[in-house]
Fold this sequence. Notes:
Layout: E1 6-7, H1 18-24, E2 30-36, E3 38-39, E4 51-57, E5 67-68, E6 71-73, H2 82-94, E7 98-113, E8 119-131, E9 150-156, H3 158-167, H4 175-178, H5 182-204
Parallel strand pairs: 1-7, 2-8
Antiparallel strand pairs: 2-6, 3-4, 4-5, 4-9, 7-8
Protein name: Nudix hydrolase domain-containing protein
Amino acid sequence: MAPPYTVAPHLEYLNVPLAELSASRPEFESFGVGGYIFAEPPSTNANSSPRILLIQRALTDTMGGCWEGPGGASEPDIDQTLLDGVVREVLEETGLNVSRIVDLVAVDSWQHLRRNGDMLRIAKYSFIVDVYEATGPYDEIPVRLEPTEHQAFDWALEEEVREVMQSNTGKFQLPLAANWNHGPNLVRAFAWFRKQQAGSTKESL
Length: 205
């Protein structure tokens, strides 16, 4: 069981039973969640830029080889709220325990064709989250993957994400930008992080 987590006050409107959220968004039949995790580099690293955790889908899974942030579908039978779904997915996919849901980066929607021919309308909420284990630089954070779902993890720089989006070259390859708005949402997450850093710098002056 995951330890308790806190929610930023401006996100409390999402901290409601899934049935209540579904009733407020009747245009969707299913909800997805994502949790972006940032970490600082080691002090010995020449590049002091922040990094974001990406995990690579197992080649035997759907969209094998795709790099993405932790996330998945909310489960009404398991998750009391959408935010519980974020916490569960992050834990299942990375072994990390969410300590706080900090902000909402994006809400994306798409349609998925079911095998019976019906269209499933999905909305995905992507959040910035803090994790209990992030007490030091990224190379000290104990990420543990579920091997049937993901085969590798890495801590990506913003320029690495942008390189994939702009030229389809680089470390993380095309699937990062090609599926479910991953690339643009990662850029939004980095923009959010820079804004927080700028605010912290002003407060310390």
